[in-house]
Design a protein that fits this description.
about 400 residues, alpha/beta, Aspartate Aminotransferase, domain 1, Aspartate Aminotransferase, domain 2, 2 domains, seven-stranded mixed β-sheet, four-stranded antiparallel β-sheet, 15 helices, 14 strands, globular
Amino acid sequence: MPFALDQIDTELVTLDRELLRRSIRSVNTPCGPEIQIQGRSLLAFCSNDYLGLANHPELIAALSEGAARFGTGSGASHLISGHHVIHDELEAKLASTQAGAIPNVRALFFSTGYVANLSVITALGLIGNKKISIYSAALNHASLIDGIRLARGQGSVDLHIFDHHHLEALDDILHNDSAPHKLIVIDGVFSMDGDLAPVQKLLHLANQYDALLMIDDAHGFGVLGKHGYGILEDQRICSDRIIYIGTLGKAAGLNGAFVCAHKKIIAWLIQKARPYIYSTASSPALAFAVLRSISLMEGEKGKELRVLLQQNIALWKKESTFTRWKRLESDTAIQPIMVGSNETALQLARALDQFGYWIPAIRPPTVPKGKARLRMTLSAAHTKEQIEGLCNVLSELESSLPPS
């Protein structure tokens, strides 16, 4: 047996022993609160489909119409022959969502948020062939972390990790940093804790110390702000220092992502962002459907869905009370339940499964060691009865399951 295969066996056994091995469950129904897995009906409280648009009939029709009009694939990367006029239309619309927040804004459409984050960080690290200082929040998403790792491999990067709850230390480090090129990187809504980034304070530091501020608003776009334009609209931010990343596979109900920034930064990405340059462009049919999704989100339907989502969040916070477990304070659709050990998290997830609820256990390395949890997410599509039923089951399980 090759060494690699033998070593894989050994390391998989270790993952099993530490209760860290992951598995895939295949859903055979459309995305929504009520799903089926292997013929079993479950209530899902783990999707990022925050507005319940992933199976919306208007988006289904738009994707079908887009395929009929533009075909199913792009055929090449954006810089070869894969960029369609519908991509231009979508990018103009995406830029308009951040026009009040970023002067001289332009948008660039990506296949995924992961690729967008890798592209931005690595391309920014090449500006002027100068040393760059990157300041990354400790709880940032893996795609941001991996983008920084790639940037460190291509040039001179000083990396500083900061706690977004305590910005005094970040201020001190920035004050003593003489690098001409500085980048602060942070999630808009933290994907595992559900809290918001202190964008106003970070922008103040960016202005004071001449830094760029990159915000990955994957869990905010579509949900936050009057029109669902995300955390910049919600917090009334405006600056040409901001690089905004939005995701279209969560609240928007489809796939893809985008970067909004000053037009000079977007021009630089087109020249230097290797994941963008060398990836096949997303289907023009998808771009057509995303345009319809944004129209829904920013209109009366989107407003109605955001109100329903906020009502569901308020109901959950009112009805969910724990004595041993801890519900993290969050005003977003992400509502984690901290249970501590990997064993307890898995035990609780299995018990919920038996009651007909799907909320996977989240364990290291996704979260820090000793902070295993259930990452519960709410949608506008959940009903009052579904949420209250879950609260009752969790209360019963907390009383019956042994302490960790």
